[in-house]
């Protein structure tokens, strides 16, 4: 249930993109085990996942089989998309939790731009340094909180190499040739409230997340920032 709550705002944005449209060509760059890909395939869309990890692709295949759908899995990085797929072959590209880890975020988005059809959409979800600073401070790690605000990472043991503000994400997408929509926050309260409260009233928490997602102050403290952009 906690995972569904965390993903609710992003799912609603994606549903608005695909509403009334059948059999879209969807690419999930870095889609891992198919958390988004398999449900999209169940809606009748043709979904391809590109991921660098063979174990994730194997888990994706099992998950798709259990759901009774077909999802194409290709091994590669986001920067390899132009080599793996034909140009202008996707109506929707998901680039979720990818830009934090690729060697060159600008090159990855340029590769995404190559495979998106004119009029197509890219969904970008990325970690936010402000939220991480809050979480590190609440854990008593004040120096790490300061560092992540300055550099986007809190030290050598940080598993996330970089994080992005909404302004930085919008600039990257604009540089890659996309028209950027509104920044939304995802997991604003979900990662802060105790689990027992989230489990007692998951619908209420989702409603709160929905209301806060576009709030000009609250969205900037979200664990993840979400943008939709058009080619």
Given the helix and strand composition, which structural class is it?
alpha/beta
Q: Number of helical runs?
A: 10
Radius of gyration: 17 Å
Portion in strands: 15-25%
Residue share in helix: 40-55%
Give the overall shape, derived from the CA principal axes: globular
Annotation, overall tally of beta strands = 8
Summarize the model shown.
The chain has ten helices and eight strands.
Explain the overall architecture.
This protein has 231 residues and is α/β, with parallel strands linked by helices. 43% of the residues lie in helices and 20% in strands. The protein contains 10 helices and 8 strands. Strands 1, 2, 3, 4, 5, 6, 7 and 8 form an 8-stranded mixed β-sheet that branches. The chain is globular.
Main features:
231 residues, 43% helix, single chain, alpha/beta, 10 helices
